[in-house]
Amino acid sequence: MDNKPVSTACILDGDAVRVWHEASDERLKRALAQQGISRFLKQEELTDISYDIILVRPDTVIDAPALKALIDSPGVVLLSDTGNPVAAHASADVASLAMTVLTSGNISMVAGGLRAATSEELASTYWQALRKREIPYVMSVSKEAIRAVEWRMFMGTYKGATDFVTKWLWPRPAFYVTQFCAKYRITPNQVTSLSLILVFAALYWFYQGDWMLGLISAWVMTFLDTVDGKLARITLNSSKFGNVFDHSIDLIHPPFWYAAWGMGVMAGNYALEQSAFVLVMGIIVAGYVIQRIVEGISIAFFKIEIHVWRPVDTFFRQITARRNPNLVLLMAGAVAGRPDWGLIAVAAWTAISLGVHLLQIVQAALVMRREGSLVSWMAAREQG
């Protein structure tokens, strides 16, 4: 095999299928380009090569970790989730054989210079960016199975450690909205921009004491916050600016929502005593800031997000005092006609959650001192 990094690929002849409203062969080219492939050959040009090449069937979708692993693995014929050969990293002397294997679908032809491997064998199943353990998908696509393939791809973009609203309530409606956005070429940054408008709308209505209008704006914003990230990954349109734009909004707006809610309460019929109001708001805002600092400490000192250390930490991330669980508490107070109770509940849950996070940090420090490192339970299960 050529020791130089592979930089050339060929999408083999055949029928492409539209996936997420884009031809699967064009999607493959963009996915390969994001992995550093800079040159694409036609199938008839394969007879003249003298270097390693990536070969892929046009009716295939490959998750980014699996695609990267293939590029890093000379001599591999990559098998789909159902065991069909769909892609290969071949040297010049076995490129013709690899092409025959892929076009015929005959895995028994894999011989000298080639070996078959699944994505589970080839790629790490713990995806650090999404805080989860999952086998990267490699799928052959048919017109009859497009919806199932798109659903699998969509669910592959979900983080393993997140809140219960995002994890259990948003996926199905977010899938259809993401499809709509992909069809009409609505970009992730446009979705994020609409989210930002709704941040200010919720802020205004909370301040005015219009609880339901504010909650509707807030819940739609949190829903779109799910959609924009999924849309970026699904359409391969992630960018550094988009990532900073989205995460900056996520990081900054919650304390302002709580403050606006508190001011709305103080201007209404259920105003708290001044000292109680200061205490409640102090707990909420300080607790929010300290919890985010705790998360940063975990990454900086322990090289791991605290939410994926142990199964109990991942479970607690579903209900910890972050935006969506807190919105549930605020909504319960508003529905009961006591928005002040909602605010007090957020303060109480923030204090409890902060205590749990501080305990996690202490426990992590003790384990780090004893064992030298922390390993996510997801990655540990994989290694075991």
For the structure shown, list the relevant keywords.
single chain; 384 residues; alpha/beta; Spore Coat Polysaccharide Biosynthesis Protein SpsA, Chain A; Four Helix Bundle (Hemerythrin (Met), subunit A); 2 domains; two-stranded antiparallel sheet
Task: Give a verbal description of the structure.
Helix 8 packs parallel to helix 10 and helix 10 (240-266) packs antiparallel against helix 11. This protein has 2 domains: 8-122, Spore Coat Polysaccharide Biosynthesis Protein SpsA, Chain A (Alpha-Beta Complex); 157-383, Up-down Bundle (Four Helix Bundle (Hemerythrin (Met), subunit A)). The two termini are 32 Å apart. It contains 15 helices and 12 strands. The protein has 384 residues and is an alpha/beta fold. The protein has a 6-stranded mixed beta sheet with strand order 4-1-5-8-7-9, with helices on both faces. Strands 2-3 form a two-stranded antiparallel sheet. The chain has a two-stranded antiparallel sheet with strand order 6-12. It is elongated.
